[in-house]
């Protein structure tokens, strides 16, 4: 079933309003679920076009739902994606204000920086490996404009894959000699582990996840470009965060990244 453009814009406007006011909205799935995930991506694209027209700059993509268990929970058989804008980047060492988000949670990820344009929908694994300029550890600060994180697949896709902010580590690592599948991760708050995992959680490998993304984005008409950042998917479960928290993620072979949240 096709959802009309008026309904798509109604859903897009509701999510934009939540982002602007800081007040989450009720789930939008009842508006658009009859149109399937295509309708949800249409809502995301409507807001992407709005933001680009109003001066925001696209600098990459994020991959969500890379965990098979989470896919089953939401009733899907593939990941999803969202847009990364320049104003979502928080330099490491700069306090993160919780006033910038609504219902934040944190995930540790491997970020891939692309070294060449990726325009082909039939891109190969070898081409993806060649395109990796470097990798850095990352903390994604996920967020939801939907009240109480009451989301199904249509809600999260429409809501830019529940994106918020992201912090990248400042020491790049070349791919040579790294097996991203086996890179173990520990994320801590107040010296205590809050999430553990490894690269294999990302569709078996962050390279596989990034290849999926590159192909899908080429088909969608928004191909990844040289310099773009890929947040390749959570290495472990997401965790809650509060004012004053200092979150540190260590990824074997790649390095450490820290996100410090302002206390006020």
UniProtKB/TrEMBL annotation:
InterPro entries: Fumarylacetoacetase-like_C, Fumarylacetoacetase_C_sf, Hydratase-Decarb/MhpD_sf. Residues 86-260 form the Fumarylacetoacetase-like C-terminal domain. Gene3D superfamilies: Fumarylacetoacetase-like, C-terminal domain (3.90.850.10). Keywords: Hydrolase, Lyase. Pfam families: FAA_hydrolase. One of its GO terms (molecular function) is hydrolase activity. This is Fumarylacetoacetate hydrolase family protein.
């Amino acid at each position: 079933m096709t959802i009309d453009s008026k309904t798509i814009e109604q859903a897009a406007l509701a999510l934009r309003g939540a982002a602007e006011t800081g007040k989450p909205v009720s789930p939008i799935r009842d508006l658009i679920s009859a149109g399937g995930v295509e309708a949800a991506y249409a809502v995301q694209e409507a807001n992407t076009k709005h933001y680009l027209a109003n001066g925001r700059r696209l600098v990459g993509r994020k991959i969500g739902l890379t965990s098979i268990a989470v896919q089953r929970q939401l009733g899907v058989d593939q990941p999803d994606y969202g847009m990364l804008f320049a104003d979502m980047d928080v330099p490491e060492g700069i306090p993160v204000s919780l006033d910038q988000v609504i219902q934040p949670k944190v995930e540790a990820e491997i970020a891939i920086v692309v070294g060449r344009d990726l325009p082909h929908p039939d891109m190969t694994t070898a081409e993806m490996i060649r395109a990796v300029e470097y990798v850095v550890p990352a903390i994604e600060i996920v967020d939801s404009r939907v009240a109480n994180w009451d989301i199904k697949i249509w809600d999260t896709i429409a809501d830019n894959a529940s994106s918020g902010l992201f912090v990248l580590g400042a020491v790049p690592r070349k791919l040579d000699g790294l097996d991203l599948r086996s890179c173990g991760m520990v994320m801590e708050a107040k010296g205590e582990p809050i999430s553990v995992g490894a690269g294999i959680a990302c569709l078996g490998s962050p390279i596989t996840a990034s290849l999926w993304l590159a192909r899908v984005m080429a088909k969608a008409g928004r191909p990844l470009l040289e310099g773009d950042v890929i947040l390749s998917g959570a290495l472990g479960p997401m965790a809650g965060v509060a004012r004053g928290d200092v979150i540190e993620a260590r990824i074997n072979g790649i390095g450490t990244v820290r996100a410090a949240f302002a206390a006020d």
